[in-house]
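ok here's the first one, seq then struct tokens
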Amino acid sequence: MPGFGKLLYQFIAPLFKSAPLARKRLIKAACLLHDVSWRAHPDYRAEACFDNATRANLGGLKHSERIFLGLALLHRYTNKREGTHFEDLYELIDEKTQSEAEVLGKAMRFGAMLWMDRDVDLGDLRWFPKKKQLELRLSADAMPLFGEVAEARLNSLAASLEAEVTVRKRRG
């Protein structure tokens, strides 16, 4: 959906407030590319995303940035990265960066399932890193969309952040 990547970026941006500008650039790129491999078979979509990000003609990216982008897009479609034939490449970035890519991917996975209409403000994320508290505030219109799959994806994101999660109904 044209323009959705920007909306997705705005939704997940609170998770990356303190990220350096170069990282925010990659985060925005991941959001813009979050669903370019939707035509790939669901069983292979995660790996297709990683492969596309690491092999595509995307100028201005270092190898480590391609791996970060690829891992984020891989985690957009799957919770785990073990068992792929790309595992040796993950070592090009450190564990912390791998974890940040995982958080980004899981945030995109969650955000993409709820925020499909850019004209409707359904809710927002708040992240309190010192307290390790993730808060989702939903409008009354969004509450019915927050079913068990959405809850599982939010909990997976919170687990990647090593955080407690709270869901609140937003006022107004």
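and now the second one, same deal
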Amino acid sequence: MPSSFGYLIWFLASLLELCVVVCALSRRSFRRYLFLNLYMLLSLVISILRYQVLIRCGLRSTEYKYFYFYSDAVLTIFLYLALITLYLYVFDEMKVEKYLRLVAVLLLVGTALFSYGVVQQSSSVQQSSSRMLTGFFFELSQNLYFVGLVLTYVLWGAILKLRETRTQLIQLVLSLGIYFSAFAATFALGNMFPNLQTLGYVLPVFGCLLPLAWAYAFFRLSPDDRMAPARLAVVQR
């Protein structure tokens, strides 16, 4: 079973996810950022379901392991879709929504095919289909985090280039960039040092950062708030 600290972080993350949805509803931003809020709502539901599976089957059970990796892949896909909707908001005046969606679908399919190829190449002949499927979802989640990391920094570059000044939107993008960076770095460390035990405590803490930042964005910032363009980047002269 997780330690008391683990349960505390788990409860705190779930509470923050609920706060994001409540703040978005109260500030009438739920529909504006629909996929972001659906991701938080889904994450809260999955967190409750994971707890139920954990209590019933145990932390080291096959059922909990499978449910964890499958649900994590679903959450990662929803987070990827939430990131794409931020692209649509930044480029809304350019009327390129159709092309952005096409590129997003191609990237998702390409990442899935690449992940399947990696798992198939590294799997043994005797490996069961359920183990291969678990490995595929784990690989897909990792690769989507790295894709999300790159896309977030590309989006941030576009924000600077286009002189985007909507404070709430900027806050959402920056927090997503920090979140993707933290998880991508953690995955990289996990691959280099498989026996590093501290990562089991670091990941849940990182999981609290995104809902905390989004709750702040919805509660303290209005969609109409604007930031001075000079604060986004300092131009060298």
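notes on #2: The chain has one domain: 4-122+130-224. The chain has a mean pLDDT of 85.
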